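Shift notes (night). Ran APO RNA-binding protein while the centrifuge was going.
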Amino acid sequence: MNRSVRSQFPGIQSLSTRIRTLTVGFGEGDDPLYADLPKPSRMKVERKPYPTPMKVLIRRAKEERESRKAQPCRLLEEPPGNGLLVPELVDVAHRVYRARESVLFGVSKLLDVVPVQRCRYCFEVHIGSVGHEIRTCTGPNSGVRCATHVWRRGGVQDVIYFPSCFHLYDRVGKPRVGHDERYSVRRIPAIVELCIQAGLDLEKYPTKRRMKPVYCIEGVRKIMEKYSVQTCGYCPEVQVGPKGHKVRMCKASKHQSRNGLHAWQEATIDDVVGPNYVWHVRDLHGPALNNNLKRYYGKAPAVVELCVQAGAPIPDQYRSMMRVDVVPPDRDEVDLVA
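Came back to this:
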């Protein structure tokens, strides 16, 4: 099957390259050579870890406050804080946008050959014609089913997920969307909004471009280093821009104390391109993955697993995570190795 799929889609091996453009195009750090299994999901009451240590954030805020006191009105020199574009990132924005379109198109074609399963009650995804038997369901009435998943056919959005955010027409003049504007301002994929703010022009999503740098007046706004993205510390909401929006739509932990406002913090690439890890299947025509053998199974991002099952070689950076070198025992040998 892998050979036939590879012959139908000769460009499948380059699809992983386009996926990597999405994740590192805007200057994220390189992935380690080897990676272990992804950590389990956070508890709902836990906050996301800060990408930048809190001590660094506090020191940076103090330095900016002292700078505003010393020079309350000054011309911002560095883009994008002065309203101008960063020249070297304009081409990157176009390449990332094209990579996203190419990945979505490629995934939709691969789904015609390699089936994807999605649990009816939780966000679990599985690549293959038959869902696995690993008991990890956390959806409604999962206790009655002993955490067994109930599978249905999945789609493109289950393989690769791009969270949406509010589109900003003027990221400098009006960097925030108010609660009363939640229905009048359009929401688009956050990665597309990031590309637009970095220099991509789309007719259906107009944005204000400046030819002259703006001034910073004491108390109007803080200086940005790059095109920043904010995420809620408790829910998946993201917002591209210097500040998070003020729409009261958070329903995660402790939202009552914030009156529904999000607890904004610095976002990571995983917040913009949502990773969906799935169990790695060695043989699509073999038996379903057994719950008692889950310690021997590896994982991979769903889009990587889809490409591998369709015939693409396993990327080196995912070989450890996918447990390629681990040979699981047969089902009748479980009691012998337990």
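The chain is about 25% helix and 10% strand. Residues 225-271 form one domain.
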